[in-house]
Automatic annotation (TrEMBL):
This is Fumarate hydratase class I. One of its GO terms (molecular function) is metal ion binding. Its cofactor is [4Fe-4S] cluster. Catalyzes the reversible hydration of fumarate to (S)-malate. GO terms for biological process: generation of precursor metabolites and energy.
Amino acid sequence: MQHFEDSIYNLIVETSTNLPGDVRRAVAKGRALEDRATRSGLALTTIAQNIGMAELQVSPICQDTGMPTFIIHTPVGVNQIEMKKDIHNAIIRATKNGKLRPNSVDSLTGENSGDNLGAGTPVIHFEQWEEEGIDVRLILKGGGCENKNIQYSLPAELEGLGKAGRDLDGIRKCILHSVFQAQGQGCSAGFIGVGIGGDRTTGYELAKKQLFRKVEDVNPTQDLGKLEDYIMENANKLGIGTMGFGGEVTLLGCKIGVMNRLPASFFVSVAYNCWAFRRQGILVHPATGDIKEWLYESGTGISVEGDEAAQPVPEPVGVSADGAACGIIPEDATIPAAPALLSDTGEAASDAVVPVNGKVTEPAAAGSGTPGGSREIRLTTPISEEDIRSLRVGDVVILSGEMHTGRDALHKYLMDHDAPVDLNGAVIYHCGPVMLKDDEGWHVKAAGPTTSIREEPYQGDIIKKFGIRAVIGKGGMGPKTLKALGEHGGVYLNAIGGAAQYYAECIKKVNAVDFMEFGIPEAMWHLQVDGFAAIVTMDAHGNSLHADVEKDSAAKLAQFREPVFK
Ligand SMILES: O=C(O)C[C@H](O)C(=O)O
Ligand code: SF4
């Protein structure tokens, strides 16, 4: 087994950087269904570009490389202790090389182990089987979508859906509700694995195991196959869309498994996986440790383009030398009108589409709180209150200058400490990047946004205390932050979750870092950016796209109240 460590290293690199073929096809299918001239359509374009960039640069698709979870089947007689050691060494190497972010944090002290090893990390499940080879499967599931997992105990009363009983129809309601409650926060459009039965632990395990099924397989249990089809058809009717921007495509895959339960318990467990659905597997030679076979189709050569003929799109862009936006907007594209659900009339205001590339392009009509058009606005930090107050939900902001990363540890710290730098007029980026250091200093390897709602208890106070003008993240924030944005003059900017290569390209220099003791993801990185594009989804005028989409999808959820599976 002298090559086993190398094989595992290759498996980790492939899983982290090259989205598999079946997942790519699902993304392409989603793109074909979504109108490209909407925010969700643009977000999917960014996601597609990011997938290509990660493969090309052999860099993480998303900066959150998740909890490495291995499921391994071995023939009888294979030394599992040795295998574990090799896996640990491969993980250390992948972390050193920037293929995995150091993600193992001591739950009591907050200390990051730095090498992805620690109590409970990585997760390795061994099972014996009577085959000859060793089957190793790996999933890298990030923390944001893990937070959107949910477990129901039937019977239950579900918001919008009423009673969910201990039967197939009750299960149907739980699954629809699970998609609703995730909104865009798990980086929709997502994939769900569902476990019916078991106890609280094995139910979740079963749900996660479903994520190892191929996206295009057919459920061997006919009833569950029907339920999967039903969910795929109807979950998209919730209108949540990519990143929760509103749209046609919310779910890209649904796999359901079943096991026995105790008479008193009836759990429906849902494992929510973001679009960055990173799982691969290898069949390993038990004598040499070499890879005999890859278990999932490689993504290489599989297009994520969707139906190009039906919907022509502008050329994909990276960062142009003249500082063109490297975020959401393709050069010489048009900014789309707001999705229908936000317009007063219920229709997309297509005549309000305005060209990009001006410094500030005025909208046809801004100021109603239900934007009928969008503008592209270039801002350089520090930002004035006046500039911020002129922004509206739907505007695309293109930032240049310095921004500061800050997430859970920093927000907690800033509540009762000073900041190490002047944050007046500043931009805070909810981001825990993958960073590597060489003789020239630190380099950003991946840097997409993290879920902002975790900072809801702190954000409003911190904005006011330090004079922050913009917060960038994903998934939106709540009423406390919205109130502070209005009182102080601030905006929330939504970047595209998981587009870690895309945003890394906008970061031109690492100016400095504070709080390295928090660990790499939680440190405060001072980053020089150019052309960093994000969409205003909460403004200083009390408008929140997230609140609107949630309300709208809650109303849509209610249409699924009546029994379907009798
Ligand atoms: O930890 C991160 O970088 C992101 C996380 O996966 C999230 O979705 O919030
Ligand atoms: S940031 Fe989004 S894409 Fe990345 S792991 Fe978290 S949920 Fe997944």
